[in-house]
Amino acid sequence: MIKLLGMGSTVQRSHPRTLTTRVIGIDPGLNITGYGVIEGNLAAMQLLEAGVIRLPRPSGNNLALRLESLFKSVQEVLRDFRPEAMCLEEVYSHTEYPRTSILMGHARGVICLAARMARIPVFHVPAKRIKQAVTGNGNASKLQVQRAVQHRFSLGHPPQPPDVADALAVALCYLNSVKAASKGFGQNGRRR
Predict the structure, then answer these.
(1) Which residue is catalytic, options 76, 84, 90, 163?
(2) Between the CA of residue 160 and those of 34, 60, 70, what are the distances in Å?
(3) Pick from 117, 135, 178, 191: CA 20 to 30 A from residue 95's CA?
(4) What's the pLDDT score for residue 180?
């Protein structure tokens, strides 16, 4: 596991108006899985940690070993940061690469299992919704997502690799939806 952006700070959880939510966003993969842990409330969001989990290279029949490595690494991050929710980018399937979707399903399965064992609810978010939430464009490029995340957290450079930015973007999307709901807006963006 490689930790790239660690802020290491904590936020007090005392008054209801300052009640914070800690969330982990994950961009699943069988080579590189990006993750980002952020904490926020109605007033502000803070980046606590972001990085990647690099798995052993595919070799022969080592899928089970790679999945075990992913599972244990996700468990470690969950244990270290104790998020209240996990947001996971939904699998994108492409007709030209059906095997990729199947393999991604394996990765998502062990990530969901790690969350379940830690009693953390998992929210699945489509890629277009994530991009729309952080850039205003559901068809945004990876670079646009990286720049939006860089701007949101005042980082000196866009998060690398893009998997880190994608993980932070899914976490931001979740916290933005929580903020909107707490301000009296439904999921469709209209006042209740």
Answers:
(1) 163
(2) 10, 29, 19
(3) 135
(4) 65
Q: Would you call 136 exposed, middle or buried from its count of C-beta atoms within 10 A (0-12, 13-18, 19+)?
A: exposed
End-to-end CA distance of the chain: 43
Instruction: Tell me which residue has tokens 């994530």.
Output: 130
Strand partners, 85: 23
The tens place of each residue's pLDDT in the chain, 192 residues long, gives 555 554 433 333 334 445 689 999 999 988 999 999 999 876 788 999 999 999 988 888 899 999 999 999 999 999 999 999 999 988 776 677 777 788 888 999 999 999 999 999 999 999 899 999 999 999 999 999 999 999 999 999 999 999 999 999 999 999 888 766 666 544 444 444
Question: Is residue 27 among the annotated active site residues?
Answer: yes
Single out the catalytic residue among 39, 49, 89, 166.
89
Name which of 137, 119, 113 is nearest 127 in CA terms. Answer: 137
- 58: which DSSP letter? P
Give me the catalytic one of 27, 39, 49, 166. Answer: 27
What gap in Å lies between CA 28 and CA 53, rounded to an integer?
A: 9
| Domains, in order of start, for the chain | 2-182 (3.30.420.10)
Measured in degrees and rounded to the nearest 5, phi and psi for residue 87 equal -115, 130
**Residue 80 annotated among the catalytic residues of the structure:** no
